Every structure is written in structure tokens, then in C-alpha cells.
Amino acid sequence: MELGARLRAFLAFVRRGSFSAAADELRISQPAVSKHIGDMERTLGVKLIDRRSRALTPAGEFLATHVLRAEALLRQAAHGLASLREPMSGALTVVASGTPGTYVLPEIVAGFQAQHPGVRVHFELATSAEVIKAVRSHRAEIGVTGGFVAAPEIEAEPLIEDEIVIVGPPGFSGRRPSRDELEAMTWISREEGSATRVIADNALADLGIVPRRRLALPAWEAIKAAVRHGHGIAAFSRLAVGEELANGTLVIIPFMPWKVRRAFSIVRIRDATLSWPAQELIKALRALRPSSYEL
Question: Which CATH class is domain 3-65?
Fold first, then answer.
């Protein structure tokens, strides 16, 4: 039984979400990926993937969780051996969602790199959904996200508290728009997968507010510019718009009973031993509590 090849095909599918992308990762044909997974399904006697929706079945989720944990242990062993060969060196990949990755982590990561020049740090920005995917697939050792974590093999450690506010251009200063006005405005947000967007949309739904016009932009700075020029309003982390609120280029739009908070969290594979660079960076992140960004 070619268990190794079959598991590699299954894990590539889990990581990439499609047979074609898995084939690209493994540099084999798409039919070969499908055959490997099909052979494993027949051997195990269960369906791992729903071929119509391309989603994992409950059995597939169960297997993916355990195999990803096993892969994490092997990777951690490799990291540990590398650190024994070359103390105070190594590599670290960190992935953060838009708000903490833009407004919280850069200074921490830069300080860490200056303190540990022998470590190769790779820092990426992604949506919250992509952060969890990167950690689950072991492409990143640690992540930071403001979204809800729903993967059983992921451990989330709350880091700092954040407040979501509704922001508009200066012309909204002193105004309290009605529900009808809010629904008629263009609501600008990040693309799907953004935790801020999900949290804000859920809060609006709870209040019975249904925006009729939407605009998705790929970066928070682009959303700021669009709002500043009067093209709509947006839900922002207060951390992201602190400077603009202070200088008056953006203003908070007050309406009751809006009061939305969330926690940024450090995410990692549960029970996995972290490399020493990851441990040191987490120490630096924990130093943010409780004063630096407390609301």
C-alpha cells in the first residue's frame, strides 16, 4: 500500500482546497491525486472528500486533524535538530490578519529581527481565514488573528482587546444618522475572510441593519482613502484609525446600541513544541499585555 503517496496527496488537497492545486503542489497530474485519494478511501472504507462540493467529509476532517498533528511533530523535530546544530539561528514564518498585521506586529517583528539577526523571519499579511489555513498547513509556525478560531488542532491565546467602530468622513461629525440612512449608505470592507468584516456584519444583523450597497477593497489603507473621500462608511478597528480620529480626517459615527469588541489572538498548533525563535517572538507579543494597546 502506497500510504506515503496517498497521504501526501490527501494533505496537499487539505492545504490547497482542490485537486488541481494539490497536483500543482506535488508536481503530479490531477488524475494521479484523485486516484491516490480514491485508493485510500477504498482501503479505509470511508469517503474523505465530497466530490461535488470539494469539502472534507467528517471522516476527512478527522483524518486531516490527526495527520496534520503528526506532520507538526515531524516539523518540530526537524526545527529542534536544526537549533542544536546552529544555536541562536533558524527560520520563523509568521502570518497575521490585516489589522494586527498592519498596526500591531510590524514594530514587534522588526524589534525581534534586530535582537536576533541570525533568524530568518518571514512575515506575511492575510485574511483571518488564511491565517488559520497557514497555521493548519504548517506553512506558518504562529499566526495572529482577530477572528474566531474553529479548528480543533489550533490553540488560540488571547493577546489584546480591540474595539470595532463605524467611521465616516469629517462631514459626519456631530451627526447621528437614522437606521434608514445607515442602510442606504455604501459600506466598504475588506474581502471575504476578513474577521473585522464578519464581526461587523454579524453585529449589524443583530441590530436589524441591512446595508443595500457594498464595496470590498483589498487593504485597510485603501478603505481609509475611500471613506475619507466620501465614498462610503466602514467598520474599523480603533487601533487602525487612531491617527485619523485624532487629526479629524475620519470621525466615528455614533449609533446605539453599537458596542463591538473582539480579542486579537496568537494561534498555533495545539500541543506542538515551538522552535526557540517562535517562543521568543511569542514572549515579545505577550509583552503587549496589558498596557500598550489596552482600550
Answer: mainly alpha
